[in-house]
Amino acid sequence: MNEDDNTPEEIQVAVEMRQDFMREEKMLAVSKQRTIYREMLDDGFALKQQLDRIEAKLDKLLEAKKPKARKKATDNPEFDVFWDKYPVRKGKQAALRAWNGLAPSKVLVTLINADIKDRLENDRAWQDKQFILHASTYLNGERWNDSIEAIPTKAETLPKSSDDLQLWALAHGHRMALPGESISAYRRYLQAKLGE
Fold first, then answer.
1. Backbone phi, then psi, for 56, in 5-degree steps?
2. 99 pLDDT band (50/70/90 cuts)?
3. Residues 60, 96: one domain?
4. What phi, psi does 150 have (nearest 5°)?
5. Among 126, 119, 121, which Cα is nearest to 145's?
6. Domain count, the chain
7. Same domain for 40 and 93?
8. Which of 72, 91, 99, 162 has the greatest count of CB atoms below 10 A from its CB?
């Protein structure tokens, strides 16, 4: 039998079968696509979770690398003021123990802070930080009661001998001693110049 011999009902059945087959193929293709999409979504969700975990780890690392605000080591604001003013910042815990051992009154705190300021401006020994005592030694020894070794004035730093004095004067842009001028007169001249 050839195709032309098919009856219209047979053709109709064949067409419907073909349509059913096509529909099933489409449904199968859609089902496969849905499965693929679901797998992609599942993979995407897993990927998102993994990215979230990585971001959380990065946030922790960045947080750990941030410089933290420096906390004061004490709950003693008077000590903190003293520590901020003291020029040698070594041995803070020892200094804090010495401070607490003193239990200074407000008057003593004021005296200590004023002494530090005065020594920084006027004490010869405090002009070079390597000779400044650690804060704990200063406190334990009650060094605010010590005398201040004054910083020499410029006039006091003039050399003693006449030859050294003239060399010093030349090096600092001053004239030589005049012929017949006594060394004391020349020294007074230089001291007057330095005082200007």
1. -65, -40
2. very high
3. no
4. -60, 145
5. 119
6. 3
7. no
8. 99
